[in-house]
Amino acid sequence: MRISILTTIAAAVSATALGAAEIAPTAVSFEDGAVSQSLTGVAGDPANGSEIVGDKKQGNCVACHQVSDLADVPFQGEIGPALDGAGDRWSEAELRGIVANAKIMFEDSMMPSFYKTEGFIRPGNAYTGKAADDTFGPLLSAQQIEDVVAYLSTLKE
Amino acid sequence: MTNLRGALSALIIAGTMASVAVADPVDDSLIINGETTLVTRTKAPAHVSDALDEVMSGWLFRGTETRAMQADDFDNPGMIFVEQAEDVWNTADGSEGKSCADCHGASSDMSEVRPTFPKWNDAAEEVFTLEMQVNDCRENRMGAEKWKYNGGEMVNMTALLASVSRGNTVNVAIDGPAQATWEQGKELYYTRTGQLELSCANCHEDSYGLMIRADHLSQGQINGFPTYRLKNTKLNSIHDRFKGCIRDTRAETYSPGSPEFVALELYVASRGNGLSVEGPSVRN
């Protein structure tokens, strides 16, 4: 426990020191499911965020969520609630926490943890069905998470 | 604030549950060739009644045209493979010069077989899937080479054995010597695998009736196997389907015929006890 706090601090310090350094997936610090500190220190790009949310090969969030703002993206799923108004319901820090690892905010959630690299059972190499190799990384990069959070913050009713 | 958040997520959860409750399989009945009515939904067997009230065939979750294809043997592309297997059934093979028919009679005499598989085999002291049983006969009774577990000859033969059982009730035994295997299968069913951390239950128990991207989630029953899929225009075995679903959780899958898949098959089959055998079925 103490070690993980230390790593968090170390990562945070190096992020400030190096300017653009990222917070590693294992070093993110959650508070009530929210993550207040930017993972990259670089402001998110909402336009790219909206791409990621709708793209099957990136976030594929629409597999489970409807987003009226992305009406042109076909086949939106209904496993989770519609994301319309997410920017009203949640603060930026909460959205960052939900996208990085929703299971901390919502216990046992079906929503995948997008910024996590450890603790999986039989992790695979993407969709090949083969075992993960050393290219294994989080589902979304730190900047992609920031972009998605920036986009979700624009979803107001 | 924390309370507000709690209330919000409670609302969200209630919302999700509500849509599960209005899960929408169609209200339709499956009558094969205008003659045989199959049971496509029925009361859940006791061992799954804590999770489901009713068990439902995947047929109820498919579109009108796909459902119609399965209802008529002339339109069901899977029946071509049944015919091919019928020829094989009657053809001698292996060092003993015997055909399946030489020992078993007409394929239609096997109508009680598919509904009880997977089942415990005393001699081998393990649970046998239908594929394992067929290969056991080929190897040890015919002196013939084993077929590839999920290869064409095998999947065709399982289609023949399913077709002669159509309308009979799935009834696999989960107690006695098979119980440990069944427990292992149950464990696998509820394990959240892969980088997406999803279990069979997440999709097929908690979310059936809902859309996940373009797919209408069913209960993931196997009473309709093998399935002719419009997507790959061939018959698909049970273990191939399991493999695909696990792969889609970004996990390392198990292999067709592996002990894990045999256990999972017994467990999933038991969740369909009470449904009719309907293979070869048609799915998208």
UniProtKB/TrEMBL annotation, chain A:
GO terms, molecular function: electron transfer activity; heme binding; metal ion binding
Signal peptide: 1-20
Ranges of residues in domain Cytochrome c: 44-156
Pfam families from the UniProt entry: Cytochrom_C
UniProt entry keywords in alphabetical sequence: Heme, Iron, Metal-binding, Signal
Name the record gives this protein: Monoheme cytochrome SoxX (Sulfur oxidation)
Source species taxonomy: Bacteria, Pseudomonadati, Pseudomonadota, Alphaproteobacteria, Rhodobacterales
From TrEMBL, chain B:
Cofactor binding remark: Binds 2 heme groups per subunit.
Annotated binding of substrate, by residue: 241
Binding positions for heme c 2 per the UniProt entry: 200, 203-204, 245
GO annotation, cellular component aspect: cytochrome complex; periplasmic space
Gene Ontology biological-process annotations: sulfur oxidation
InterPro entries: Cyt_c-like_dom, Cyt_c-like_dom_sf, SoxA
Record's catalysed reaction(s): S-sulfanyl-L-cysteinyl-[SoxY protein] + thiosulfate + 2 Fe(III)-[cytochrome c] = S-(2-sulfodisulfanyl)-L-cysteinyl-[SoxY protein] + 2 Fe(II)-[cytochrome c] + 2 H(+); L-cysteinyl-[SoxY protein] + thiosulfate + 2 Fe(III)-[cytochrome c] = S-sulfosulfanyl-L-cysteinyl-[SoxY protein] + 2 Fe(II)-[cytochrome c] + 2 H(+)
Signal peptide coordinates: 1-23
Entry keywords, A to Z: Electron transport, Heme, Iron, Metal-binding, Periplasm, Signal, Transferase, Transport
A Pfam family annotated for this UniProt entry: SoxA-TsdA_cyt-c
GO molecular function: electron transfer activity; heme binding; metal ion binding; oxidoreductase activity, acting on a sulfur group of donors, cytochrome as acceptor; protein heterodimerization activity; thiosulfate-cyanide sulfurtransferase activity
Enzyme Commission number, as recorded: 2.8.5.2
Domain of life: Bacteria
Binding site for heme c 1: 100, 103-104, 137
All copies of domain Cytochrome c, residue ranges: 84-169, 184-277
Catalytic residue positions: 245 (cysteine persulfide intermediate)
Cofactor: heme c; heme
Subcellular location: Periplasm
Family recorded in the similarity comment: Belongs to the SoxA family.
Stored NCBIfam families: thiosulf_SoxA (TIGR04484)
Subunit structure: Heterodimer of SoxA and SoxX.
Protein's recorded name: SoxAX cytochrome complex subunit A
